């Protein structure tokens, strides 16, 4: 029994070196996992995954008419902002909308020739768009803001 611990390879010099090597390898593996987890969290943070969703949307309203002007109606919810309002084209309005709002933008081309186009752009992306060419003289862009 007394000699059994002497025969145990873990008590030899090679056994101690092997344990130290295993311990260093384990520490290195743990460090690699921690660095990968931190890197993953940083990527998610930079992509905005942890940010709460925005309820406000940046919006750009556009009307283009080859005739140089148009009559527009613009309404948000039950609030009429413009009714048969004459504008020079291209016409542009920068605003914000809340999520769930109903938006209506219509345009008519009184010149009687050419093309007419409306666009609603939300957060830099075209959300609603319609184009008409003479003899069609009206376009409408409308929807509920996502």
- What strand line-up does the widest sheet have? 4-1-6-7
Instruction: List unreliable stretches of 5+ residues.
Output: none
- Please name the CATH architecture of the largest domain: Sandwich
Please name the CATH topology of the largest domain: Lipoxygenase-1
Instruction: Write down the Rg.
Output: 34 Å
The chain-level structural class is alpha+beta
Number of β-strand runs: 8
Helical content band:
25-40%
Quote the beta fraction.
Answer: over 45%
How far do the termini sit from each other? 78 Å
User: Outline, from the CA principal axes?
Assistant: rod-shaped
| Average pLDDT reading | 88
Query: What is the CATH first-level class name of the largest domain?
Result: Mainly Beta
Number of domains: 2
The biggest sheet, with number of strands, parallel, antiparallel or mixed sense and barrel status, is:
4 strands, antiparallel
SSE pattern: HHEEEEEEEE
Total of helices: 2
Structure description:
The protein is rod-shaped and about 100 Å long. The protein is built from two helices and eight strands; from the N terminus they run H-H-E-E-E-E-E-E-E-E. Strand 2 (69-76) and strand 3 (79-88) form a beta hairpin. 27% of the residues lie in helices and 46% in strands. It has two domains: 4-47; 56-144, Lipoxygenase-1 (Sandwich). The strands form two sheets. Strands 4-1-6-7 form a four-stranded antiparallel sheet, with no helix packed on it. Strands 3-2-5-8 form a four-stranded antiparallel sheet, with no helix packed on it. It has helices spanning 4-7, 13-47; strands at residues 56-65, 69-76, 79-88, 91-98, 102-108, 115-122, 125-133, 138-144. By secondary structure, the protein is an alpha+beta fold.
């Amino acid at each position: 029994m007394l000699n059994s611990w002497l025969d145990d390879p873990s008590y030899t010099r090679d056994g101690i070196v092997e344990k130290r090597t295993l311990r260093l390898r384990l520490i290195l593996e743990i460090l690699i996992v921690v660095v990968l987890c931190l890197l993953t969290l940083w990527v998610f943070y930079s992509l905005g995954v942890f940010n709460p969703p925005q309820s406000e949307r940046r919006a750009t309203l556009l009307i283009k008419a080859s005739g140089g002007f148009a009559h527009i109606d613009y309404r948000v919810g039950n609030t009429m902002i413009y009714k048969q309002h004459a504008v020079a084209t291209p016409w542009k309005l920068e605003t914000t909308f809340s999520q769930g709002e109903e938006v209506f933008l219509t345009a008519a081309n009184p010149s009687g020739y050419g093309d007419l186009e409306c666009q609603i752009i939300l957060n830099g992306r075209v959300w609603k768009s319609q184009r008409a060419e003479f003899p069609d003289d009206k376009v409408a862009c409308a929807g509920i803001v996502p």
